[in-house]
Recover the amino acids of this structure.
């Protein structure tokens, strides 16, 4: 394993948390309460940036009331829905602190899992698991039980690799749906990103890298775009942290024809005309 570059320690520095919300008014109180309680326990300065992507259920009004009681909670609002990537772009641009974390404003994306990104690691064989040693870290959703036919295919493939190469690939941690597994394969093929759940919206990164990673995508492909550009620039990316198995919203949503069209259009745009922003990191 090549020696990792030495990076300035950031694990204990102030933190910006970006939550992407749309029509979450019924769950916002519990979600914000859990995030604020967790962040208060970190004993550091922080801010919570909630980006409301054109909600119609009173989400913005609820956040405004919450921010009046907590000056560390800020609301950014799109007048009309612009997409998950556009909301992420808005939130990242507003982040002020050296560490930036983002996820969806949904109860299954738990603050405790962010704590696993920030905790100190004691295994010298895997120093890249700590944010002090990498530029960004990403999670993988636990997924569901892999369907039997695919388990059989996987066992056959691992046996074939062990016989031919004397080493078998790791088992999948869970089933994310054929569309997401296909997406991970294509991300590896076209962008060289070797992540199991390349589109997982649960990430921690150093703010200094953001000028090099301008997001061109308005839809959920932005999560893949961020990893593809980071990989191309040679930034150090930590191993995936496996989230607890859960009923994650993105796993139950099958893309419509229009959503698939947007995804392919944005992927093709990034492939043909990628933008990398300023060469000078902040």
């Amino acid at each position: 394993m090549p020696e990792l570059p030495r990076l300035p320690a950031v694990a204990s520095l102030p933190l910006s948390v970006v939550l992407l919300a749309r029509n979450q008014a019924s769950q916002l109180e519990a979600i914000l309460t859990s995030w604020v309680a967790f962040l208060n326990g970190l004993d550091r300065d922080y801010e919570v940036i909630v980006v409301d992507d054109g909600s119609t259920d009173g989400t913005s009004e609820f956040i405004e009331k919450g921010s009046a009681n907590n000056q560390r909670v800020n609301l950014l609002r799109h007048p009309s829905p612009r997409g998950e990537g556009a909301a992420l772009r808005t939130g990242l641009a507003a982040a002020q602190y050296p560490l930036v974390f983002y996820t969806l404003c949904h109860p299954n994306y738990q603050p405790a899992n962010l704590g696993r990104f920030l905790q100190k690691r004691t295994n010298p064989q895997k120093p890249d698991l700590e944010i002090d040693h990498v530029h960004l870290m990403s999670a993988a959703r636990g997924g569901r039980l892999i369907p039997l036919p695919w388990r059989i295919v996987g066992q056959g493939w691992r046996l074939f690799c062990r016989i031919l190469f004397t080493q078998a690939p790791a088992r999948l941690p869970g089933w994310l749906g054929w569309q997401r597994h296909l997406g991970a394969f294509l991300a590896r093929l076209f962008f060289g990103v070797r992540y199991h759940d390349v589109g997982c919206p649960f990430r921690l990164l150093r703010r200094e890298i953001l000028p090099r990673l301008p997001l061109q995508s308005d839809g959920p492909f932005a999560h893949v775009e961020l990893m593809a550009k980071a990989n191309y620039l040679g930034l150090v990316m930590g191993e995936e942290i496996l989230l607890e198995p859960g009923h994650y919203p993105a796993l139950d949503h099958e893309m419509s024809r229009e959503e698939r069209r947007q995804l392919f259009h944005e992927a093709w745009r990034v492939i043909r005309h990628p933008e990398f922003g300023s060469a000078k990191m902040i």
